[in-house]
């Protein structure tokens, strides 16, 4: 018995070591593009173009970033991106969670049909709506205005689907019924009972939406033509307009544009992981 236990323990240790080795290798492979972007942001063009290319950081990180500041209003564009991303994220969290609560806990005629229509919109490529949306924005006079980006992005089908599924599984009907017996309105139930119970879902959806809006390029470049209202991704495009590509400067701007995303993820990663873990163990 003792021998079998030792063998089983050895197999378990070998299996665990293999899993850890795989995770370490996967993590390094995932982080390498970000690391190499940092390496290029610290090098001059002539160093980047050498064969073999450098894989260790250089000493020109500050110099390359000064070139970025000399070509674009980096901090102004970053402020624009923060404002747009935060506005859309908070709007999506409120409206989509409210819609998710409605579809998961309230009964009304045509609920399933309407929810099915919302899911169908997820299959439509966003590029197909580019011309109709542009026509609407120009009719409203919102060109070069943040409303052209914020208003259309305040709600999305994935957010409604995500919140509906999480609230349906994570908020028991008994709590809702008890609150109704106590005389709570639907909005009070949502605000005082449902919202505190779905904070992990908020964190997950918030990270996804913030990253999507922060990295969005197509729609902002269509409706924001004035450099004073450029978001960061649109502003970084100006770094490619030079006759000679300065890869160190471009990678420097791209690297510092990625830092806020890392900060947001590190701030909410605990709730993000909790949300995924809860979804994995639900029956």
TrEMBL record:
Keywords: Cell membrane, Membrane, Transmembrane, Transmembrane helix, Transport
Gene3D superfamilies hit by this protein: MetI-like (1.10.3720.10)
Cross-referenced CDD domains: TM_PBP2 (cd06261)
A cellular-component GO term for this protein: plasma membrane
All residue ranges annotated as the ABC transmembrane type-1 domain in the record: 78-268
Subcellular location(s) per record: Cell membrane
Main location: membrane
InterPro entries xref list: MetI-like, MetI-like_sf
Topological type in the membrane: Multi-pass membrane protein
Xref: Pfam families: BPD_transp_1
GO-annotated biological processes: transmembrane transport
Residue ranges crossing the lipid bilayer per the database entry: 18-38, 82-101, 113-134, 146-163, 189-214, 247-268
Family: Belongs to the binding-protein-dependent transport system permease family.
UniProt name for this protein: Binding-protein-dependent transport systems inner membrane component
Protein source organism: Evansella cellulosilytica (strain ATCC 21833 / DSM 2522 / FERM P-1141 / JCM 9156 / N-4)
High-level lineage: Bacteria, Bacillati, Bacillota, Bacilli, Bacillales
């Amino acid at each position: 018995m003792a021998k079998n236990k030792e063998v089983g323990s050895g197999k378990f240790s070998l299996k665990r070591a293999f899993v850890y080795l795989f995770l370490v290798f996967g993590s390094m492979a995932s982080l390498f593009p970000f690391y190499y972007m940092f390496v290029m942001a610290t090098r001059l063009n002539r160093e980047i173009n050498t064969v073999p290319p450098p894989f260790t950081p250089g000493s020109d990180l500050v110099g390359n970033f000064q070139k970025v500041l000399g070509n674009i209003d980096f901090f102004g564009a970053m402020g624009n991106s923060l404002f747009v991303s935060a506005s859309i994220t908070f709007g999506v969290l409120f409206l989509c969670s409210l819609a998710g609560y409605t579809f998961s806990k309230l009964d009304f005629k045509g609920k399933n049909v309407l929810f099915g229509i919302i899911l169908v919109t997820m299959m439509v490529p966003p590029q197909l709506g580019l011309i109709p949306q542009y026509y609407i924005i120009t009719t409203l006079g919102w060109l070069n205005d943040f409303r052209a980006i914020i208003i259309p992005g305040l709600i999305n089908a994935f957010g409604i689907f995500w919140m509906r599924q999480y609230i349906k599984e994570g908020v028991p009907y008994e709590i809702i019924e008890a609150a109704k017996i106590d005389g709570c309105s639907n909005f009070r139930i949502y605000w005082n009972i449902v919202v505190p119970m779905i904070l992990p879902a908020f964190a997950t959806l918030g990270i996804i939406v913030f990253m999507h809006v922060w990295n969005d390029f197509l729609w902002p470049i269509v409706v924001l033509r004035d450099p004073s209202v450029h978001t960061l991704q649109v502003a970084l495009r100006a770094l490619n307009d030079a006759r000679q590509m300065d890869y160190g400067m471009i990678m420097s701007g791209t690297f510092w544009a990625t830092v806020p995303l890392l900060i947001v993820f590190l701030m909410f990663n605990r709730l993000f992981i909790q949300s995924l873990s809860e979804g994995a163990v639900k029956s």
